[in-house]
Design brief:
Blueprint lengths: L1 H17 L9 E2 L2 E5 L15 H6 L4 E3 L8 E3 L4 E5 L4 H12 L4 E2 L4 E10 L9 E4 L1 E4 L4 E2 L13 E2 L18 E3 L2 H11 L8 H8 L12 E3 L1 E4 L7 H15 L5 E5 L2 H13 L8 E10 L8 H5 L10 H21 L1 H4 L11
Parallel strand pairs: 1-6, 2-5, 2-7, 7-16, 8-13, 9-14, 14-15
Antiparallel strand pairs: 3-4, 4-5, 7-15, 8-16, 9-12, 10-11
Helix pairs in contact: 3-7
């Protein structure tokens, strides 16, 4: 009997081993990923951050837990997915990499839309405006000397890494320091959205009136403008002048500095690597930043006083910028989703717009 029971145990064990494993669920095809950077509190029903309008208006009701990311992903039945990276390049890189490697999602045909608020250069963009960026330059990687110790003749204490003085030529950006998105796709997104009338208010008009430049006083509009980004939140006229030169230096004068943010080189570096691994398509990446505040003080006020008012929710164009990010970004998302049969395998072209 004991021998029989042993054989029976071996036989049943072999049957159990021979049972075919359950087939894993097919990855969920994602058509568009909306990348937001922060949320104020809950995803719905309170003071909005960059995610909330997308969740509420596009009915991103299905939540996918993302323990390896900063925030859970949210999705609707149309193939639109959104995620919050968290502030700073480190959070952004980790979150986008976690999403890109998640086996639940098929992102090989997905378009990526980075849509968030930003500081604006008043010489190139006005409050409440929306800027599509083709060039994104990292502002953190480099050397820095305290301004009280810089040599005579230097315009700044911030130096390119491995250089001996500010803006020493030739520029030699390291991987992850300089990005150019697909120029044709960026132009297409601009032409699809350039007609959109963005909200203007008396509060915005008053804030703009403090700045003397013609562009700074213009009503909100959709335009093309490039981005400086890094985890250090800088502010002030002199820092703006440095950022303008930093953009020109690394892009060989092709980029035009319009907005400043804190996450996008982290997001873009992860997308670049995911594309190299066949998990994403680098040609399908768009960067949209809307101006919630100017990146410097107005005449008669020092930079420190101006900086003291720069807090989330207190920016002079905070809600208009959130609205602009959704309205402009959603126009592109809706166009892609509506014509998915065309855009799944073929990138949109400017000539296709009416």
């Amino acid at each position: 009997m004991r021998i029989f029971l042993c054989y029976l145990a071996l036989f049943t064990s072999s049957i159990a081993v021979a049972q075919p494993a359950s087939k894993p669920a097919a990855p969920i095809p994602v058509k568009v990923v909306v990348v937001a950077m922060f949320e104020q509190g809950a995803d719905t029903g309170d003071m909005p951050g960059e995610l909330q309008y997308w969740v509420e208006r596009d009915h991103l009701d299905t939540v996918y837990p993302m323990p390896a990311a900063y925030h859970d992903a949210r999705m609707n039945a149309d193939g639109e997915l959104a995620i919050v990276t968290g502030q700073g390049t480190a959070h952004a890189a980790a979150t986008i990499m976690a999403l890109g490697l998640d086996p639940r999602f098929d992102l090989t045909h997905a378009y990526w839309l980075i849509a968030g608020i930003a500081g604006g250069n008043p010489e190139r963009v006005s409050l409440g405006s929306a800027a599509w960026a083709n060039w994104v330059v990292d502002s953190d990687l480099g050397y820095e000397i305290d301004s009280r110790e810089i040599p005579a003749g230097w315009s700044t204490g911030k130096l390119p890494l491995r250089k001996g003085k500010p803006f020493e030529t030739p520029a030699a950006p390291l991987e992850g320091q300089l990005f150019q998105t697909n120029p044709e796709l960026t132009r297409w997104a601009y032409f699809v959205t350039s007609h959109i009338a963005l909200a203007d208010t008396e509060k915005l008009k008053d804030a703009r009136s403090r700045f003397p430049g013609e562009i700074a006083r213009k009503p909100p509009q959709v335009l093309l403008g490039d981005e400086i980004t890094g985890s250090s939140y800088w502010h002030g006229k002199l820092m703006n002048d440095w950022a303008d030169q930093w953009m020109s230096y690394y892009t060989e004068d092709k980029g035009r500095f319009a907005t400043t943010a804190m996450e996008d080189t982290g997001t873009l570096e992860s997308l670049r690597l995911l594309a190299r691994a066949g998990k994403a398509d680098w040609k399908r990446v768009l960067v949209l930043r809307t101006v919630s505040n100017y990146d410097q003080q107005w005449p008669g006020v020092d930079a420190a006083t101006s900086l003291s008012a720069q807090r989330i929710g207190q920016y002079s164009a905070y809600l208009p910028a959130l609205e602009a990010a959704y309205r402009v970004g959603h126009t592109v998302v809706a166009e892609i989703l509506t014509h998915w049969d065309s855009y799944r395998d073929q990138l949109p072209k400017t000539a296709q717009t009416n």
